[in-house]
Amino acid sequence: VVDKTTQLHKRCETMMRDHNSLEATAESISSKLAVFEDVNKITRQMSLLSSGTTDDVSKLFPPGVDVAEGLHDLFQRLDAVTAFMEEHYDYQMASACLSQMSHLRSRACFAVRSHLMRLLDEAGKELVTVGTREEVSSNLYKGFEAARAAEVRPIIDVLIDVARENDDYVATIYAVHQYYCTVRQASVSEWVNDMLDSMAATEENDEKEGLEEEESDILPYTRHVCRQVLSMARAECRTYTAYFGDDVNGTPGGSSGTSQAGLVAGADEPIEEYLGNCYGKPLYA
User: Which residues belong to any copy of the Conserved oligomeric Golgi complex subunit 3 C-terminal domain (predicted)?
Assistant: First the structure.
């Protein structure tokens, strides 16, 4: 009886080990199959974005789904599949899946870029440059901020969150930065320069006695006009921050701080150049 019992115990232990091993194998196979199934799901999802709707990423998601949340989930799934295939590159389908994920990510980023550019275009069309100085100033800054920032900012935050995973995300941020500057430059730069020239023409010049040679190159704007430039530049930075966020130090993107969007060197170059052209250039000959 003792021998029989011992044998039964050993057989039970062997069966339990085999059972656990089979469960682990089944889970492993299931997780791998889930990855390949997600590849198919992502492909089907991206097929919803036809060539005629590349600037409306809401088409990728069911009605009622928040666009930013949907994009965050999509990008995370793309990156998860990519990471899995890179880790298991010996799989027969790994190379093909990696190429497919790269293509789908590029399509998604292109759609996001087109979507954000359309929103910026719509915001730009609402800008008014006719009226009193106060009315135009309010519209150029607060008006532009209120126009589409609430729609653009959440998607930019998603791109910033995933930017470390792939350069396509950073390139998308860069392209949207650049387009933002194009939209703003057309309306803001000329108005700022005309306003400053008008103010300078009606005021006394600052005394240049005792100035260093480089300082004497500054155009004859009064300190009051220079303060106006600084005030408008700050308003511009607040408007930019409403669309693209700020860094941890509270410094708008640029050389004085590392912005969230500036995860890769050069991501903030369009903004730096734009701010210099609109608010730095008027002060120098």
Answer: 139-246
